Amino acid sequence: MPIHGKAHKYGDHIDTDAIIPARYLNMTDPDELAGHCMEDIDSGFVSKVRRGDVMVAGKNFGCGSSREHAPIALKAAGIAVVIAETFARIFYRNGFNIGLPLIESAGAAQGIDDGDEVEIDLESGVVRNVTKGEEYQFAPITGIAAELLEIGGLRERVKRQLAS
Amino acid sequence: MTITEKILAQAARRDEVRPGEFVTCRLDLVMANDITAPIAIEEFAKMGAARVFDVEKVVLVADHFTPNKDIKSATQAKLLRDFAREQGLTHFYEAQTGGIEHIILPDKGLVLPGEVVIGADSHTCTYGALGAFATGVGSTDFAAGMALGECWFRVPASLKFIFTGQLSKWVCGKDLILYTIGQIGVDGARYMAMEFAGPVIENLPMADRFTICNMAIEAGAKNGIIAPDDITLDWVNSRTTRDFEVFNSDRDAEYAEVYEWDAADIEPQVAFPHLPENTRGISEVGEITIDQAVIGACTNGRLEDLRIAAAILRGRQVAKGVRCIVIPGSQEIHLAATREGLVETFLAAGCLVSTPTCGPCLGGHMGVLAAGERAIATTNRNFVGRMGHSESQVYLASPAVAAASAVTGRICGPEDL
């Protein structure tokens, strides 16, 4: 099913402290974490984000700490997919491990502005900017990342491995 | 092959691996702390796992929000303690046996050359200083590692950093890694291995090597690594009787890029807010007053770091209005620092000496900043809000620069005293 939502746009090097400040790492409940998502760099994010929305950012998204609380908070806040020019590697693993799709596309990351309405088809590798009438291609997700998205994350993969 | 490729090949039971390949490696150690383990323990149960793959190879350390800063943190630490007891883990550290994870794991001989380690903490790359492959992962990867004793990796390409020449006085491992990050940027080594080599590195003590590899993640690297030599082997052999294998990069190993820098050109470095790549030499810092200095963390909380800070603070006073917080990296280091008289030196100079904790580095506790406040810290990150309020600022530097700055109340080097 295509993803359809509004874009929330940020810059380069959005670190995991920005996504969820460390002072909230004394809890693990996704909804509680979502309530503080992005608050140090955008205090209005939580009130404006809607389920199915898309986060768009520049280079090296998710750099810094390994905290899985970061993708968990984004997903629980309603973000259906993150598009960035590039991702930091631990965040990239964590996103797919918890079933949050991540798309690397410089074209989409640069072309989409804050508030644009976007549609994404993960299988065909197309991001459509409804507001601007533009389309951006990305390499469809393959390999382990695709497998994790299909089965719902690493938990399920390990569960099957342990059962076999 | 590079040292990183050789270690991964061995752990994947392969003769050879190449950058970009996906491999599944057996794990020699998996580690998590009081903020990443709680999610992992829940995931472990949801995976249907009953027992960890090896009670000797799963390490839990309560260090981030300890001594427990509030009820929620206490609950998380208790979760680790209970899980460690239920599973019969050999290695659970807190309180009297504890300290900062990336300081105590090497100190206790739990990581050896040639081993493959994942840790649910981004600074797990610290252990590369021992010639091990060590990388940070999230909670679910750690939970999978606890259950299976293996992990998949994409083999990283390697960057080589060669330091030649002579280090200037007061220039240490922290300055070399800050300089490196300043040169290549916070994503300059994204997904890659950073291999540090050359005569300067070969003469560095282990403490400096740990500092260098600790901050590989701040350039986006998967791992930092230094080939083991006599300094490494002396250090390791005094801590373990376990067998291990030493790997070295081949002469014809392939690197995505090789950087060579003359250490004599590098002065003490300071990374300005809000990225570790915003580095300047100490002579280009200008007039920046500080409210707080933090000396410690997994980056610079070792005994050698405390000795440098104490040498500068001995017979001097912390500037009026500045809070200088010194945090020994472990109980053992705290005791050794006390026996050497370093703690007395710090207290006499007006420093606060804390029990080991990650505390202020991540704005947890024991030194959180208010809006508008500025700190110089030997920690590894200066992101927005990292040490407290989103309008506070963190400058990163070595123990020598942090201690000198505490004395003058403005960012300066020891030569300025």
Describe this structure in words.
The complex is a heterodimer of chains A (164) and B (417). Chain A has 164 residues and is an alpha/beta fold. Chain A has one domain (3-163): Alpha-Beta Barrel (Aconitase, domain 4). Chain A contains 8 helices and 7 strands, in the order E-H-H-H-E-H-E-H-E-H-E-E-E-H-H. Chain A has helices spanning 16-19, 30-34, 45-48, 69-77, 89-97, 106-111, 143-151, 154-163, and strands at 3-9, 54-57, 81-84, 102-104, 117-121, 126-129, 134-137. In chain A, strand 5 (117-121) and strand 6 form a beta hairpin. The longest helix of chain A has 10 residues, at 154-163. The model of chain A has no long low-confidence stretch (mean pLDDT 97). Chain B is α/β, with parallel strands linked by helices and 417 residues long. Chain B has 2 domains: 3-261, 2-Layer Sandwich (Aconitase, domain 3), CATH 3.30.499.10; 270-412, Aconitase, domain 3. Helix content of chain B is 31%, strand content 18%. Chain B contains 14 helices and 18 strands. At the A-B interface, helix 4, helix 5 and helix 8 of A face helix 2, helix 3 and helix 5 of B.
Poorly predicted segments of chain A: none
Number of domains of chain B: 2
SSE-based structural type of chain A: alpha/beta
The overall number of domains of chain A is 1
- N-end to C-end Cα span of chain A: 30 Å
How many extended strands of chain B? 18
Tell me, briefly, the overall form of chain B.
globular
> Which CATH architecture of chain A?
Alpha-Beta Barrel
Major β-sheet strand ordering of chain A: 4-3-2-1-5-6-7
**Average of pLDDT of chain A:** 97
Properties at a glance:
heterodimer, A: 164 residues, alpha/beta, Aconitase, domain 4, 8 helices, B: 417 residues, Aconitase, domain 3, five-stranded parallel beta sheet, 14 helices, globular
Précis, in short:
Chain A has helices spanning 16-19, 30-34, 45-48, 69-77, 89-97, 106-111, 143-151, 154-163, and strands at 3-9, 54-57, 81-84, 102-104, 117-121, 126-129, 134-137. Chain A is α/β, with parallel strands linked by helices and 164 residues long. Chain B has two domains: 3-261, Aconitase, domain 3 (2-Layer Sandwich), CATH 3.30.499.10; 270-412, Aconitase, domain 3 (2-Layer Sandwich), CATH 3.30.499.
